[in-house]
């Protein structure tokens, strides 16, 4: 049982290091705002460009650190489908 738990923990740790290595090695901004909209490159499931026309409201949430940026949109399913998940 201890070996199985150790193996699972090791696999999670190594996969986390791989993801972190990919993020560190990229030389692009995590969140970029331009005249077309907001480009998300900061998360593991980056969705790319969110057009200004599809954004209803932008707000900061969180009582203390870390705060999060919440973007409410008109077509959330469209952007969920756009998400890139490296594990699927």
Q: The biggest beta sheet, please?
A: 3 strands, antiparallel
Helicity range: 25-40%
Into which percentage range does the β-strand content fall?
A: 25-35%
Low-confidence stretches: none
- Mean residue pLDDT: 81
Q: What is the number of independent domains?
A: 1
What string, H for helix and E for strand, traces the elements in order? Answer: HEEEEEH
Distance between the termini: 28 Å
Radius of gyration: 17 Å
Spatial order of the strands in the main sheet?
1-2-3
Let me know the number of strands. 5
Q: What's the quaternary structure here?
A: single chain
Shape by Cα distribution: elongated
Keywords:
single chain, 27% strand, 88 residues, three-stranded antiparallel β-sheet, alpha+beta, elongated
Record the SSE blueprint.
Elements: H1 2-25, E1 31-33, E2 37-40, E3 48-51, E4 55-61, E5 68-73, H2 76-82
Antiparallel strand pairs: 1-2, 2-3, 4-5
Outline the structure in words:
The protein has 2 helices and 5 strands. A 3-stranded antiparallel β-sheet has the order 1-2-3, with no helix packed on it. Strands 4-5 form a two-stranded antiparallel sheet. The protein has one domain. Helix content is 35%, strand content 27%. It is elongated. By secondary structure, it is an alpha+beta fold.
